[in-house]
Amino acid sequence: xxxxxxxxxxxxxxxxxxxxxxxxxxxxxxxxxxxxxxxxxxxxxxxxxxxxxxxxxxxxxxxxxxxxxxxxxxxxxxxxxxxxx
Amino acid sequence: xxxxxxxxxxxxxxxxxxxxxxxxxxxxxxxxxxxxxxxxxxxxxxxxxxxxxxxxxxxxxxxxxxxxxxxxxxxxxxxxxxxxxxxxxxxxxxxxxxxxxxxxxxxxx
Amino acid sequence: xxxxxxxxxxxxxxxxxxxxxxxxxxxxxxxxxxxxxxxxxxxxxxxxxxxxxxxxxxxxxxxxxxxxxxxxxxxxxxxxxxxxxxxxxxxxxxxxxxxxxxxxxxxxxxxxxxxxxxxxxxxxxxxxxxxxxxxxxxxxxxxxxxxxxxxxxxxxxxxxxxxxxxxxxxxxxxxxxxxxxxxxxxxxxxxxxxxxxxxxxxxxxxxxxxxxxxxxxxxxxxxxxxxxxxxxxxxxxxxxxxxxxxxxxxxxxxxxxxxxxxxxxxxxxxxxxxxxxxxxxxxxxxxxxxxxxxxxxxxxxxxxxxxxxxxxxxxxxxxxxxxxxxxxxxxxxxxxxxxxxxxxxxxxxxxxxxxxxxxxxxxxxxxxxxxxxxxxxxxxxxxxxxxxxxxxxxxxxxxxxxxxxxxxxxxxxxxxxxxxxxxxxxxxxxxxxxxxxxxxxxxxxxxxxxxxxxxxxxxxxx
Lengths: 85, 109, 462
Hints:
The structure holds three protein chains of three kinds. By secondary structure, chain B is mostly helical.
């Protein structure tokens, strides 16, 4: 029963996605990426653009990522050791 | 070429989604989650791909691939690792309590 | 103070609290832990109130993290809609924190992190950042749901699986938006004025529908609500479901404007089904918290219906319902916590929480002089205005059903003898929230300006 529901949902989703999405693969980059490539090195001083985005432009995301890691560690200790006072 | 990174990524997402909806074993549901996150990473990185583009480390005048999806995926990977860890720990506790990992029998308990 | 401190202060203090807990092996520092947990929510509230003069004059406050322009970096913005939600959420978080001060340090740390996640979702204007803070919010909620009850791990696992499906679909939608537009900032994407693909809209709708418990996707709601510790149930129902609705407001009236108004009728029908489903299933429940959970689905249906009318009156109704439901449901869940917690202590004598429970029930039924009445009144007006009289009838019908089950529960509670003393810390939040139900029902003027301003910001005119 669950299998049939799963197949139906996935088929509908797949047909919808592949029929409506126009797949532009390997074309030129978007507006934001052009700005990063143009200004990245001069503004942040990092040659590696991934580093400059991760640690400077979008550092707020990285902060969130580390918080999630902290929450997961806290959760694992809470589930395994019990919630002692 | 139809079978590029974007399509394969979407197919992986769909396979994982099927696994999460249809499978009855707790571990298989978690595997579905892992497959989905792999598909997402492939999808995002392919979105930023440019033909003849070099890795986004600036050195001279060449075309580069989009660096933003790579960064986003670094964040996503960590998030998915955290979710998977929590799911596995919960699966461990469920097994300790009920001695089974089958969802259909767990529903009745 | 910059608005980013609303997110950063609870975050920082949560780490301080966990550090103090590590130190308290040598010396008991519980008082400081409690003090810091309250301060960590009170300071953001004060910062929020300090922005009130600017917001009420119709302006917005923007803050770019790191000083980068919104194309490259992440932009935060405080407008009247954010202010409204932020105000409700911080007030509720403070009330429920006071209620649950006797819990462990790990609980408080997770609670503060969750508060930071909520504020992050409310403030950010970047879709990917929205995803990250949504994950902070939901991952900490998966853990908070776990309680001493027998089925808690199963309920938490179910919530985790559905929640991660939701966030994966959300991220997939973000990917498609990035592929078609090349930008991640919500304001910039909506200023491009290009209609998005229908499939992207459906992905976001499904994802946020799971997060907020719209009917075909509501499976986790009853389990998680009935299993979680009472304060967490109150948070789930009063806050976490509403954050899903907030994201719908934020995304569907900006990026997906054309798609949203195309699919208006379908969404209204979904809302109506949610209303009836929640009301009928709440009627047949025997467990009090399960009944409250299904009643939450019912109320979320009304909010979703009002939101999908798309008119300004509809938005006003939806926002007022959000306020009314958050206040009243918090009151009821905290009451159920007081009743349920004490079953171990004494089987016969229970504290008197009949009055706040009764007031909260009246508000959820929607009787006059309570805040639920004003919300339902605006929603019905919006239904009449868009000539969807059927939906007004459905709301009235569901009110009658909820009158049946809430009055039944109140009568049951009335018969409980009342000679048990409980700590004032647990009683005060209950009485404050039930008092707020009446104040907001008698004097809706207090909050009406802000709601009208928020409705104007969204510009909900077809």
